[in-house]
Amino acid sequence: MAYYHLVAFLVALSCFLGVLNASAGDVDPQYRTCVDQCKKSGCIGDACFASCNSSSGGISITGQWSMKEPLYLRWKQWDCQSDCRYHCMVEREKEREVLGARPVKYHGKWPFRRIFGIQEPVSVVFSFFNLAMHFHGWLSFLILLYYKLPLRSQSRKTYYEYTGLWHIYGFLAMNSWFWSAVFHSRDVDLTEKLDYSSAVALLGYTLILAILRTFNVRAEAARVMVSAPLIAFVTTHILYLNFYKLDYGLNMKVCVSMGVVQLLLWAVWAGLTHHPSRWKLWVVVVGGGLAMLLEIYDFPPYKGFVDAHALWHATTIPLTNLWWSFIKDDAKFRTMNLVKKVR
Fold first, then answer.
1. How confident is the model at residue 7 (pLDDT cuts 50, 70, 90)?
2. Which of 152, 174, 185, 217 could link 212 by a cystine bridge, Cβ 3.0 to 4.6 Å?
3. pLDDT (0 to 100) of residue 149
4. Sequence-distant (≥ 6) Cβ neighbours of residue 107 within 8 angstroms
5. Longest CA pairwise span in the chain (Å)
6. For the whole prediction, is pTM greater than 0.70?
7. Are 312 and 295 in contact (CB under 8 A)?
8. Looking at residue 140, what is its pLDDT?
9. Would you give the distance in Å from CA 192 to the centre of its chain?
């Protein structure tokens, strides 16, 4: 389960990556002038944008023009300011490239190129691949427990004591990767809050699961006593972020604290366990450690598409597969031991 705590820690790192108010790109006078002129005229050179309220000739644009936009653009709610910022950024980066200058960040983000209106297409694709891997892992886990391993004769329930907990984990993980894909597709206030909230919920739950599994807590009353205060804390924090203030600094401290605690719990457990599939833990530990370097080493997107964060999403795809493989091995191991005791 070493991968489990590494993934939790990486999620913790991603929790506090907030959008900055000022970057080298958006304080550039040429970029700012371009944006101001675009918002007034609705055009950059010969290109005019339906999201702005006036054409280059100052003629008012009716709502019918914007309604003629393709649905895949309309649902993303690109407004005049965001369209002007994007196209001015593209033009400015072309000029900088001719001069041999390196790309710079604009409003806290690298200059990504859109595809069908999607802001970070590669991260979106890899996020959906991660979601698919979690779905496949969860589904194969379910099939293993209910169709391949023995069930209790009286209740027809599984022998594995953590079945329900891993089901919840699967749903929360899929939910988190779904909103990650949506957030990378279009960064607005709502998608940002949903992405952050999903990551915090996943971290909070994984902390609960880490405590229950490492300390082998099986009694329902004891599980409730452990879970209740943590659920209350995580719920309060999510409500605070959504309805009071999206405090990146506070969120960083909360996410990192939860990640570090489970990191320590799983690290000690992984060192002490004699699990037959523990080799998988060490594989994902090394892989997870290398993946974490991608989050630390931030670099501009290659050709405007692939950056360090997108590569991190790519590395978690095979690690997720191996992680669910270990979960299934753990279910087999625990089930076989319990069946032997019953017999």
1. low
2. 217
3. 93
4. 19, 20, 21, 23, 25, 26, 85
5. 86
6. yes
7. yes
8. 97
9. 10
Q: Is 115 exposed, middle or buried (0-12, 13-18, 19+ CB in 10 A)?
A: middle
Which residue in 278, 283, 282, 231 sits closest to 258, CA to CA?
A: 231
For residue 48, the surrounding DSSP H or E stretch is strand 47-48
Window from 33-37, 77-81, 190-194 with minimum mean pLDDT: 77-81
Helices (H), the chain: 2-15, 29-41, 63-67, 71-74, 80-98, 121-143, 163-185, 189-214, 220-243, 248-272, 278-296, 308-342
Per the structure block, which two tokens stand in for 326? Answer: 């270990």
Q: What one-letter code names the amino acid at 316?
A: T
Contact 300, 101 (CB under 8 A): no
Domains of the chain: 24-56+77-111 (no CATH), 119-342 (1.20.1070)
* Burial 218-237, CB ≥16 within 10 A → b, else e: eeeeeeeebbeeeeeebeeb
Alpha carbon separation from 232 to 50, 205, 239, 335 (Å, rounded) = 46, 11, 11, 32
